[in-house]
From TrEMBL:
<keyword id="KW-0028">Amino-acid biosynthesis</keyword>
<feature type="binding site">
    <location>
        <position position="73"/>
    </location>
    <ligand>
        <name>anthranilate 1</name>
    </ligand>
</feature>
<dbReference type="InterPro" id="IPR005940">
    <property type="entry name" value="Anthranilate_Pribosyl_Tfrase"/>
</dbReference>
<keyword id="KW-0479">Metal-binding</keyword>
<keyword id="KW-0057">Aromatic amino acid biosynthesis</keyword>
<feature type="binding site">
    <location>
        <position position="104"/>
    </location>
    <ligand>
        <name>anthranilate 1</name>
    </ligand>
</feature>
<dbReference type="GO" id="GO:0000287">
    <property type="term" value="F:magnesium ion binding"/>
</dbReference>
<dbReference type="InterPro" id="IPR035902">
    <property type="entry name" value="Nuc_phospho_transferase"/>
</dbReference>
<feature type="binding site">
    <location>
        <position position="159"/>
    </location>
    <ligand>
        <name>anthranilate 2</name>
    </ligand>
</feature>
<protein>
    <recommendedName>
        <fullName>Anthranilate phosphoribosyltransferase</fullName>
        <ecNumber>2.4.2.18</ecNumber>
    </recommendedName>
</protein>
<dbReference type="InterPro" id="IPR000312">
    <property type="entry name" value="Glycosyl_Trfase_fam3"/>
</dbReference>
<comment type="similarity">
    <text>Belongs to the anthranilate phosphoribosyltransferase family.</text>
</comment>
<feature type="binding site">
    <location>
        <position position="81"/>
    </location>
    <ligand>
        <name>5-phospho-alpha-D-ribose 1-diphosphate</name>
    </ligand>
</feature>
<feature type="domain" description="Glycosyl transferase family 3">
    <location>
        <begin position="67"/>
        <end position="316"/>
    </location>
</feature>
<feature type="binding site">
    <location>
        <position position="85"/>
    </location>
    <ligand>
        <name>Mg(2+) 1</name>
    </ligand>
</feature>
<dbReference type="GO" id="GO:0004048">
    <property type="term" value="F:anthranilate phosphoribosyltransferase activity"/>
</dbReference>
<dbReference type="GO" id="GO:0005829">
    <property type="term" value="C:cytosol"/>
</dbReference>
Amino acid sequence: MTKELLHMTSTYAKELEQVLLGEKTEEEILLYLKEVEKHSFTPEEVGEMVQTIKNHAIYSPTFESSTLVDMCGTGGDKHHTFNISTAASFVVAGAGLPVAKHGNRKLTSSSGSVDVLEALKIPFSQDLKEHEESLQRNNITFLSAQHVYPALKPLAIARKAFGKPTIFNCLGPLTNPFSVKTQIIGCYREQDQEMIAQVLLEQGKKGIVLTGDQGLDEASLSGETKGIRITENGLESFILHPNDVGLEISPLSAIKGGTPEENAQTMVKLFEGEKGPIYDVVILNACLAIFASGIESTLKTAMGRAIQSISSGAALKVLREMQGGNV
């Protein structure tokens, strides 16, 4: 595996490398997290830490697509919503865009993407060839961070014990090993948006970094979503209201999630066409991914494409194919 050589200038990246090499005890990692929590990170520091992690991936994918998408949130918003970005990924794949969804188990939520996919009986492969074949065959694959980066396990244990969001919530979405071209990243802290957007811009990616109403790490129905769009021309701030794309306002409580098993059942019903606030928030987030990719030039046409993905049965077909035909 070819690794990008880093001349580390950041103390935090150097200490992270020591963590990944197994050179720090759990107590030392917890002390590191306390230091991290107090520090205001620059895009340059974040970029170094991202590359430090990516150098420890167990494989280097070769799959290439000019429209490859990833969408996920930083977590940490403590709103315990339905698995919005995971569901939206199926919708985006059904709309014709390949998706390499990079996710994790729950840390501060009720159900992480890995948890709900396991409840849907969608297996997580550790084999690169299977991931690339899934993208070719089903237009989607799901990557578990713990499989891609086993060296992160001690840090994951310490983060769970630490119990509070840190910069690593922001790093996770930036460490997809696939050559993703468009990223939608929801972050619970609006002040982190520009830093994440600058890193994406530096990586040559398109995308949207956003914060929903009440700090939701998804585009929201309960009020305004504030974000930054990343294009080849730079960064552009925006504010989006549900009414702007023809959706009704719904309270945050209407998109609350449950157990992984409950969320899995809700997802299937959604793809079977059951309408309601969860349907609305999923198509809203899928719409933003489609729009950010550039495959549709307006939010209106991107929304139409997201709706068509469900109404045509395409999103459900992707789900069933990923289940291997299991109900």
